[in-house]
Amino acid sequence: MWLLVQYFYFHVSKLYKVFLTEKDIPYFSSGLKEIIIDFVSNGIYTIQSDDKKLTVPREMAVRYFAAAFLEVIIWWLENYMPYSPKFMANQLMRITMMGPYVDNPFGK
Fold it and tell me: Which of 25, 29, 38, 101 is most buried per CB count within 10 Å?
């Protein structure tokens, strides 16, 4: 995750921002989404290779997280990268592993 976010931080330009945020250029974001899908797929497989130990089908989890990562990266770019790449990578991994809640609201 760190390398992915760091790549955007160091290589981002107005051109990347336009390509990712303009709704008329879907080919760029769909190509980038495929890169993120590969990244997420490899990460999930590294952490858990047994599909029976996942709470949802693997492809569903991969697509869910890839789409979420792409949208967060777009938000980050649109807001002039208010956080460092390291912070972003840590937060994306944190929300992926633990969800957005400090305490589990569903376990009460």
Answer: 29
Question: What distances in angstroms separate CA 14 from CA 9, 35, 39, 68, 92, one per listed residue?
Answer: 12, 20, 24, 22, 23
Number of helices (H), then strands (E), belonging to the chain: the values are 5, 0
Q: Are the C-beta atoms of residues 35 and 5 closer than 8 Å to each other?
A: no
**Considering the entire predicted model, what is its pTM?**
0.73
Q: Give tens-digit pLDDT for 71-84.
A: 898 888 888 889 99
19 CB burial (10 A radius; 0-12, 13-18, 19+)? middle
